[in-house]
Amino acid sequence: MSLRPTLDFLLYDWLAAESLSQRSRFADHSRETFDAVFDTCERIAREKYAPFNRTVDTQEPHFDGEKVILPQATHDAQKAYAASGMLSAAQDYEMGGMQLPYTVEAAANAFFAMASVSIGSGMLTTGNANLLMVHGTDLQKEVFAKNEFSGRFSGTMCLSEPQAGSSLSDVTTRAVPDGADHENDPLGPRYRLKGNKMWISAGEHELTDNIIHLVLAKIPGPDGKLIPGTRGISLFIVPKKLVNDKGELTGVRNDVALAGLNHKLGWRGTTNTLLNFGEGKYPVPSTGSGPAVSGAVGYLVGKPHEGLRCMFHMMNEARIGVGMAATMLGMAGYHASLEYAKNRPQGRPMGLGGKDAAQPQVRIIEHADVKRMLLAQKAYCEGALALELYCARLVDEQHTGTPETADEARMLLEVLTPIAKSWPSEWCLEANSLAIQVHGGYGYTRDFPVEQYWRDNRLNMIHEGTHGIQGMDLLGRKVLMEGGRGLALLAARINSTIERAIQIPELAVYANALGKALQHVGSATKAAWATGKPGDALANAVPYMQAFGHTVLAWIWLDVALASIAADATKSIAACAGRLGATRYFYHYELPKIDAWLKVVETRDQTCADLPEEAF
Amino acid sequence: MSLRPTLDFLLYDWLAAESLSQRSRFADHSRETFDAVFDTCERIAREKYAPFNRTVDTQEPHFDGEKVILPQATHDAQKAYAASGMLSAAQDYEMGGMQLPYTVEAAANAFFAMASVSIGSGMLTTGNANLLMVHGTDLQKEVFAKNEFSGRFSGTMCLSEPQAGSSLSDVTTRAVPDGADHENDPLGPRYRLKGNKMWISAGEHELTDNIIHLVLAKIPGPDGKLIPGTRGISLFIVPKKLVNDKGELTGVRNDVALAGLNHKLGWRGTTNTLLNFGEGKYPVPSTGSGPAVSGAVGYLVGKPHEGLRCMFHMMNEARIGVGMAATMLGMAGYHASLEYAKNRPQGRPMGLGGKDAAQPQVRIIEHADVKRMLLAQKAYCEGALALELYCARLVDEQHTGTPETADEARMLLEVLTPIAKSWPSEWCLEANSLAIQVHGGYGYTRDFPVEQYWRDNRLNMIHEGTHGIQGMDLLGRKVLMEGGRGLALLAARINSTIERAIQIPELAVYANALGKALQHVGSATKAAWATGKPGDALANAVPYMQAFGHTVLAWIWLDVALASIAADATKSIAACAGRLGATRYFYHYELPKIDAWLKVVETRDQTCADLPEEAF
């Protein structure tokens, strides 16, 4: 079973991705070049990723005292990925890129996420380099970003610290100027960093010649104290090994030391580390004039104290990336359990009772409850994929649209990103649980892949902003910003879908249900903020996000159903029936859940917030 | 943090467990003797189980070619358990038992499930021996059951087969008479068995002198064919090593061979096996007269063809046991995440924004969303514990009540058992996911216990009857049997709680909500069966069970709240506030979910059932 038919339909029939090639940036492209990328990625994922997904789970990264050891398969997979050009898929030709739309890049990466999510750590390297392309100097782009795009170097994002976790305002990594001439380093203002960074994915390994850490740290004020809050944060390039201004390794190891590997529940193909910066394990001789300063050498990116702004620039794409990873883990489980259900004989149809026990067993896909579990997975995962691609398409619009459509896309992305990140993290995880359930006892064994998908997927509600943080971002910032313009824009798009759907007899009832759901989300948003107190509104930010997400997905499915009906004349009838079935499932089984979630939102329920600690 | 205060409240203040000592069977008992049992079990669980929960996860059972190797800790824990007398806690004094109420036995076992669910495999041995006490001959009780109660032997249940799974009517293990005098064996009619049994917990190990397998198999008819369906199933005692009529090992190994260990997602302290019966690995010389017959030696229990009836006799207690295991895994995660939330500083209260970033961080239990995740866990797990104890109390009523109350208890158990099994399996698993979420990234590492609880708990929706089977049992059998008497009895109990609660101002609104929910479940039950077609009703048996379960839990919480208010004069105010908070949470956040589930039930929604296979 291939992902391609679903992907093709969503990209070409639904999102009209081919029309992007009419834009000057993508003028060399066509459906043929897009498809060639998909062919390549599908093949590499099939040959270099999928067969080793269990290998990277059982052969966890370990430190031999000098190096972090990863399975050979990981080395091979990453080499093949880099060789495919995917690290710089969206970059300009002059940077060695393919100038592909982000929509196509995101879709192509879906193959790797589905085959082995934890081998595929290209996302961080690309994100790191992309950030430098926006905020770095020309030389930083040349020395660091370009070598990351080629796969010679890899990249990390070093935000969290052990004592701070999600609370970035409490970052205590210090960066002090490295000598009197520190401003004059060609690679950027040179600092020395000291501090500890936690949860750093791909923080240490031998997959590439060098690792380029992007590190959030604070430059002390004249009094030597760190500025409280997020305002004091600056961003630094801290290479594992020092390089000269041609990007060549100087032979000097920077003072970045592995303090420990995290041993995880899943996602074990990607090393996750605690890193010590500037603890003195690899002391770097003072290179500047004036009194010697110790610490890891780092080069400032952008202006001091604007580090978080630079980092946030990458946030939308990183969060869409997490949403896509969650989606494809769900999809992998859906395909595996569908395959199993089609082949496993067990039991007999309902109503026969013991009377027809002499008849042969049927395959379990013939049981209504198994079909329910499969259709739920389809509705969750294919719906989530549609949402992620829709958001990716908005990213392209933001980058290459007219000023007006670009601004609209930016605003829509602000509101949709928390959903694109959180919804698949929650519901495609539930899909993975259903995939286990379809397998019965076999699903609970490590002889089948579904238990690993479920373990891998559990990460996605945690990293890149927890579920709680996404909820507060949505209800506390995104639906309020610019006078609620994002919500209004989204409502306009939803209403446009409703207007089209209401004219199709079989969809009219869903159009009406979606209209009601949208109104309910709108009124609940107002009610949540009726007192103007963040505490009143945000105590139920997660239930709000759950209801918001289900409404968005109901809209996505209705819009996909419209496209499916429109395309039916030329498309496989079964695929269309499947999409309409999933739409029906979503409106019958899922959308009605929003009332329960919104109930506590609109009453500003403080049951949880008010319970005293000693009562737990 | 101890489980005791919660357990004490539920047992003594809510269920009046002490009053059981007024019954003649329990006349020697009192709250003091019950408490002494709890003290012992709490201590053994703390000393011999909890410290080794991670050990049994990482040192999975393995086969060295001759023996199954388990960690020493498992041997020690099981010895301590047997020495405590818990294996025969509920048995008659003359069998070496303590004649404890089942309610007390179940509560005492909760400590082990919470400390390390997968070490504690006493449940199968006790269940096995209990079955023999009901259906076995006097000598079978003496030779097999008694040695199981003492811990000298252990027991298994061998139902599933690789080709049949949940479909017991497709069992193909054959049992043929072992010679002409096979009826005359003192241990029971002697047969020879051939077949494969899958998913056999504790199927092979060196923890005890012998393993007593209870095996479902079919005796071929005169034509040599197996009778189709479940009617053809008989039950046999198949010891791993043969014994004489004094229970002494004869030195002859029976032909039961380990075919493979299952490598599981969790619950790794318990060996899970594929066993081959009578494949000839350990051939047993023919002992009877007439032509030699090969196969594993087995002794018939009860009458031929009544094996499933014998097995079902144990089903209610086994399913309550699974529900209790799921509950205590949830509770373990709740306690761990509560502890973590009370100690982990991170972030600042909502509304301060960046302005007060100079203030110290607060502990995460001060954040509303963390409190929401903790209160949800409390509502799920303490509510589930109350339900399990309520069901255990019904078991005691069934065994020691007046004919009328015993029959009522039996009927209520029929209806409540699918809920007692399924509800904690689903919602205490969700609690474990929330416990991970409270821990953030740390929860995803194996340095904290919560990821293991989540993995361990995933089994409970699968074994001892899957979620789907529980749903069909509830809607397809239990609410219909005896003219719907079980549902009527349950409704009467719920209404009695409503009548009391409606008089308490702070509970009246919940009493009304429960009344409506009960009506909704009732009308949905009728609507589901309006056409009389099983296919129409049972396509949504799982959503029905979810709604039914939430309604039952809402009732349990309201009843617990009543007891809590009644007890408040003498009890800790904080504990009472906690129970009222959990009740409030359940009515505000959880009970409203039932409408979405019942919607598809009452419309007999066939969206899933009707979708053709090729449309997936």
From TrEMBL, chains A, B:
<keyword id="KW-0560">Oxidoreductase</keyword>
<dbReference type="InterPro" id="IPR009075">
    <property type="entry name" value="AcylCo_DH/oxidase_C"/>
</dbReference>
<dbReference type="Pfam" id="PF00441">
    <property type="entry name" value="Acyl-CoA_dh_1"/>
</dbReference>
<dbReference type="InterPro" id="IPR037069">
    <property type="entry name" value="AcylCoA_DH/ox_N_sf"/>
</dbReference>
<feature type="domain" description="Acetyl-CoA dehydrogenase-like C-terminal">
    <location>
        <begin position="491"/>
        <end position="612"/>
    </location>
</feature>
<comment type="similarity">
    <text>Belongs to the acyl-CoA dehydrogenase family.</text>
</comment>
<dbReference type="InterPro" id="IPR025878">
    <property type="entry name" value="Acyl-CoA_dh-like_C_dom"/>
</dbReference>
<dbReference type="InterPro" id="IPR046373">
    <property type="entry name" value="Acyl-CoA_Oxase/DH_mid-dom_sf"/>
</dbReference>
<feature type="region of interest" description="Disordered">
    <location>
        <begin position="164"/>
        <end position="188"/>
    </location>
</feature>
<feature type="domain" description="Acyl-CoA dehydrogenase/oxidase N-terminal">
    <location>
        <begin position="35"/>
        <end position="144"/>
    </location>
</feature>
<dbReference type="InterPro" id="IPR013786">
    <property type="entry name" value="AcylCoA_DH/ox_N"/>
</dbReference>
<dbReference type="InterPro" id="IPR009100">
    <property type="entry name" value="AcylCoA_DH/oxidase_NM_dom_sf"/>
</dbReference>
<protein>
    <submittedName>
        <fullName>Acyl-CoA dehydrogenase</fullName>
        <ecNumber>1.3.8.-</ecNumber>
    </submittedName>
</protein>
<dbReference type="Pfam" id="PF12806">
    <property type="entry name" value="Acyl-CoA_dh_C"/>
</dbReference>
<dbReference type="GO" id="GO:0016491">
    <property type="term" value="F:oxidoreductase activity"/>
</dbReference>
<keyword id="KW-0285">Flavoprotein</keyword>
<feature type="domain" description="Acyl-CoA dehydrogenase/oxidase C-terminal">
    <location>
        <begin position="359"/>
        <end position="473"/>
    </location>
</feature>
<dbReference type="Pfam" id="PF02771">
    <property type="entry name" value="Acyl-CoA_dh_N"/>
</dbReference>
<keyword id="KW-0274">FAD</keyword>
<dbReference type="InterPro" id="IPR036250">
    <property type="entry name" value="AcylCo_DH-like_C"/>
</dbReference>
<dbReference type="InterPro" id="IPR052166">
    <property type="entry name" value="Diverse_Acyl-CoA_DH"/>
</dbReference>
